[in-house]
Amino acid sequence: MADIRKKLLDKFKIQNAYGVFGAYLKEVEIDGFRGMRNLTLKVEYPITAISGTNGSGKSTIGQIAVSGYKKPTTDRIYRRRYIKDFFPKSPDLDPNPFTDEAKVIFKYGTNTPQLQQVTVSRQNVEWSGYKRQARKTLLLYWVCGIHPKIEKRGISIYHSNNFATY
Question: What pLDDT sits at residue 144?
Fold first, then answer.
């Protein structure tokens, strides 16, 4: 029996990634959303986990990533998401979720060495630039848990014998 771990790692190699996953988000530049300025996030693998403390921008990054793809033409269930779906202006809740100059540059890995680049920005009152986006059903999962006193003063970590590193 072949080593399943090696087979899985082979699927993630850069030369195999497009054949396995299709066009995938390789890099995203975020500027002007919820306090994020000039953030460049390089995505090494088509399946990625982002972690951090509350308020660090995990949800913002995830929401922007979801809005980076078009709905596949064959998918009848998936609902396409746009930046406006995640960042509505609300006088009571979030009056300024983005700046007037806010933009996102999506860079997709494809079957060529060059990355396909798409810029989505706000033109007057509408977001534009969605036409050349890659097609993919993208799922965004939020997983949360209560960490044993990690975010408290002094960075005391209890039950550390239960943590594992790989």
Answer: 59
